[in-house]
Amino acid sequence: MEPVLNHARCWGAPAAAVLFFVLWCVAEAGRMGPFAGVIIMQWPGTVPLLLMTAAIAVAARWPMLSLALTGLLLLGQLTRMVAPMYSNNWAIYLGSFIALGFIAWTGTARMRIIAAAANTVFAAVMAVMMLSWRYSAGLGWFPKLYSGDWYTFRTYGPQLFALLLMIGAGIFLVGLLLSLYQERGSLFHARELAQNTLKDTEIDLIVEQERTRISRDLHDVLAHSLAVIAAQADGARYLVKDQPQPVLKALETIAGSARSALVDAQRVIEGVSEDGMTAPQPQMKDITDMVDGMRSNLAIRDSTSGQPVELSSGQQLAVFRIVQECLTNALKHGGRGAEVRLHFDWSGPGLTLHAASALAQEPATAEEPGRPGRGLAGMRERAHLAGGWLTAGPDGEHFRVTVFIPYGHPGDRDRDGAGAGDRAGAGERAGIEQPERDREHRQPALTGPAPAGTAPGTTGEETENA
Q: Which residues contact 93 (CB under 8 A, 6 or more apart)?
């Protein structure tokens, strides 16, 4: 119903004007005489019909022009420049009331009042000219009385005027009801939109409260614990300098990892602070430093092919975290010295990252619980939010992770946060669930190999479920 009314609101007036004109031409074809391409001007109703047709056609778009055309017709008849109405064509006057109906439907409240007042005056002038012996001298149900205009007006005037007002009021009421119906639909739509907006606002408020809670917990628990770990590791390293070099190296790694995790935790806390400021996030240029920092524990071979392309900030964050997850899990499950190969391929329509590491040779222990891990699911989610995809699984003696991140449009890369990949950093900045996902690679194991079948991008639990 609504689409039909919307189309009728725009095109109803021109369509009604065409229909009005065609019906009059069909009804008066015999009196109009032969056609010569146009209506012959000898028919007395030609000018009134054309003016009323034009008044209907422009009623919705230019209501003042429509009223002016009706007034022009009546003025022309009063000054005898236009032929008066007769018994067979006086109903052309009803075109003024049809135009009034469209004005009531599409016009403003002020315009409705103006149109109603103008048509009241028009109805009075029409009644006068239809009854006066100087013009139409009575027609239809109101024949001549041969007693002068005053007596004719007293006898027929109120009846004819009331008839014209009833016709005009009825059409005006139809247009007003259509307008009210559409306004009610618009109000329902606005109310529904307001309810949805309120619901979204409530959800945002809940999320913001959760972010604040997580920020407080990170500050009170995680950040403090990481600071204690870093301080204890540094203290132990300085107190036991006569210990073997591997032990000192392990303490140094523990302290460095704790400080790095503390910095990341501080970024998350700042990202969910009340002022809404987002802390700087790791980018592609930080991958080199991260890989160099892991070389003391892993045998990493990295390579690059193609010309690097600037990715959006969210995509860069996703690539950084995926590489970090792969290296951390290789160390966690493969132990120190595990071989890892990284290859960045920039030659395609997007960045393709290949990561592979040898599978652990020791069998899985029965003590490990068979619950699903979060690392692989977290990497897949990051790749998906960056606009790409990720596959991971055993391949012979290696476990391979393949990631594809599309370059996207140049305009998207130039706008920070405009591309689909920028959504990948939303969860990181929001602080929701990210601390749990990143917890796996914040505390790398430095001794002992992991259960068989584990590699970058998976936890021991994920391999067991596979």
A: 48, 52, 85, 126, 164
Token couple for 213: 């809670």
**In 3-state terms, what secondary structure has residue 312?**
coil
Question: What is the pTM for the complete model shown?
Answer: 0.43
How far out from the chain centre does Cα 178 lie? 30
Q: Print the SS3 string covering 136-193.
A: CCCECCECCCCCHHHHHHHHHHHHHHHHHHHHHHHHHHHHHHHHHHHHHHHHHHHHHH
Tokens representing 99 are 């135009």
The two structure tokens encoding residue 364: 């899985």
Residue 127 and residue 161 in contact, taking contact as beta carbons nearer than 8 Å: yes
Alpha-helical (H) ranges within 240-312 are 245-271, 285-294
Q: Which helix (H) or strand (E) holds 398?
A: strand 398-406
CB 54 within 8 Å of CB 14: no
Among the listed residues 117, 105, 19, 24, the one whose alpha carbon sits nearest the alpha carbon of residue 61: 105
Q: Which residues pair with 442 in a beta bridge?
A: none
As given in the structure block, the two tokens for residue 215 are: 């920020």
Q: Which of 134, 133, 68 is nearest to 96 (CA)?
A: 68
Q: Which of 458, 462, 275, 301 is nearest to 371 (CA)?
A: 462
Q: How many CB atoms sit inside 10 A of residue 52's CB?
A: 27
Give the span between the Cα atoms of 461 and 463, in whole angstroms.
Answer: 5
CA pair distance 364, 255, nearest whole angstrom:
30
Place of tokens 């012996």: 133
Query: Could you tell me if residue 276 is left (phi over 0), alpha (psi between -120 and 50 degrees) or otherwise beta?
Result: left
Q: What are phi and psi of 230, to 5 degrees?
A: -60, -45
Helix (H, G, I), strand (E, B) or coil at 413: helix
Cα end-to-end distance, the chain, whole Å: 55
φ/ψ of 61, rounded to 5, equals -90, -45
* DSSP class of 219: I
* Whole-number Å distance between alpha carbons of 331 and 462: 16
> For residues 419 and 411, is the Cβ–Cβ distance under 8 A?
no
User: In which region does residue 229 sit, left (phi positive, over 0), alpha (psi from -120 to 50) or beta (all else)?
Assistant: alpha
For residue 1, how many other CB atoms are within 10 A of its CB?
A: 8
Q: Which tokens belong to 437?
A: 């996902």
Q: Residue 459 in contact with residue 329, Cβ under 8 Å?
A: yes
Amino acid (one-letter) located at 454: T
Per-block mean pLDDT, blocks of 10 residues, the chain (466 long): 74 90 81 53 80 93 94 92 84 92 91 94 90 74 71 83 93 92 82 85 79 69 71 74 74 77 68 54 87 87 92 88 88 83 93 88 46 69 88 87 80 40 43 38 34 39 34
